[in-house]
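Continuing the series of single-chain predictions for the mutant panel. This is the parent chain; the variants come on the following pages.
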Amino acid sequence: MHKLKLILLLSILFFWASFQFQALAADGHRVGFRTLGFWIPARGVRLDINIWYPGTRANRELNYPPWTIYAARDSKPLSGKFPLILISHPSPATRFSFHDTAYWLASQGFIVACPTHSHDCIDNMQDLFTWEQLTTRVLELRMTLDLVLGEKSLKDNIEDGSIGLVGFGAGATAAILMAGAKPNCISWTDYCAKAGKNDLYCNPWSREKINGICQNFPLKRSLTDSRIKAFVAVSPGSGMLFSSKSFENFNASLLLIAAENDQLYKRAFHIDTIASYLRGKSKLITIQDADMGALMAPCPASLEQELPDLCRSVNSKERDIIHKRLWDALIMFFSTELNVDDSNNINAQKQ
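Parent structure:
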């Protein structure tokens, strides 16, 4: 009987997810979907990228176990030019973890590219708390941008000079580095004295890792990517890598988004500290009731069993409200900073 109830519950959740995606499709562009892959043997990097974009064919259910998404595989792109957004996931995630956010952005007139970070994802965290965690992310985001801009089927649909980046967790730190911040570890000296021994970064293993990161400064080359015009950093960690000097010559368009219930990265030592260093050069907003798990798409059943704390931090109704707040913030920021052409807005043309 218990098993039957579980199957019934999962069926209801599956139907509800399907209904939600179909409702999104009715309110916006149809959404095309395709994947790209790239392999660098010398670096041991395998780059897999999901791309969502305004399309011309009807959406349907697509299965990429354990994920189910809704889009039109390899659909012809909708005629017109659209801004390009990169999404960099946090460590316990993949290129599918924000598929509903990517879908929604595409339905609103954006092309969205999401890579899986090869050595900093749910299946492989070998770079966790190392300098390579961030530099490899930057490399992979640059590669993603190169590949998408060169993709024959889409390159003519990307608006010149209209490229944005959304990073979550470690992806948010990478976004801040690509926006032009220069890490220096000045704040690391007394970080644990302030944050306490139970802080994520203050156990002996983590402290040794962060000490290793701090040996890499000052940088010999900038991590800035001038092709990206607007950056969103959602719940970044690694606040101890920066100081006010990190942002002395910082002029990028940056939106900081705090997840109110994030227990992993204490906002007082990370996003709030980074915002104080920026001295008004960026805007900081807070998404109420959110943690990192709540910002992700609903977990597949198998992943929910494996990572209950991440997947069950909110119920489906709460997740919908949180996502609405996130999506409103993203569309407002990118529409302004990337000078979105109203002719490509969903209110101007529907298929």
